[in-house]
Task: structure prediction
Amino acid sequence: MQIINNFFLNHYLKIFGIFLLLLSYECFAWYVYMDNPRFANKMFPRLEYIFFKSYPEFATYYGLDQGLIGFRENYFQATLVLFDSSLTTLFRLFLGVGLGILLGVGTGLILGISPLIREISLPPILLLRTIPIMALIPLFLFWFGTREIGIIIFVIFAVFSIIIVSTLEAIRNVPKILLNHSACMGATKFQSYRTVVIPYILPALNGSIRVILGISFALVLAGELLATDKGLGWLMILSERYLQTGRMMVIVIIFIIYAIILNIIYIKFSNKINHWKK
Result:
């Protein structure tokens, strides 16, 4: 109980802001409902419609692989469907984003060792970064079809193109005076890179990674639009196809919850890594 009380005392303003947001949404939804009760729930569903009507409708997709076909409303089965789809989507997210960050940072650190190589490689990488990610969806669909690897590579490419630019720019912004002092103290180039450059660029990379985590679910959702029969993106496609706005809002809320949890976990992790910045 003491933990809950401390949480509300420390975050009451944030909770109040979320309450105002939900209240504004509900008021506008009721306005739409009063103006057009026949199609209101298709256009802008109320919160009670989302949680008490749309949520249990996900039970319709329960047991499709076992031949269970037909419209159903069941909270337990709907929860199982959303849980199973969440596991699939989260697997794609962690694998794609994790590999994209590792490859981007690793490649950036390797290219950043030599100023000459860095200046040569930066323009084509920046050119690659300007390609609209969503415009590549048809190409990835053509290259990989409906295979799982296509979704993973799409997410990896999107994350890689963002983080490698941030890494190279962070390395280029390291003050030369720090490197000169390190060299004067007898450090080799590798030692300077390990003890000066990498610690210096961590805060800049921290901001870039937080941005990536913020858009990571959008990237995975876009990847699942390639063509898949599993995941939250698949449920979103089905809901959009049949104009089930309430179901789409349920998935949006799930994405928001996951994104908040992921951001909180990463902040705690990054604070431990960058404790010397405090």
Remarks:
- The two ends are 30 Å apart (CA to CA).
- The chain is about 80% helix and 0% strand.
- The chain has a mean pLDDT of 82.
- The longest helix spans residues 75-112.
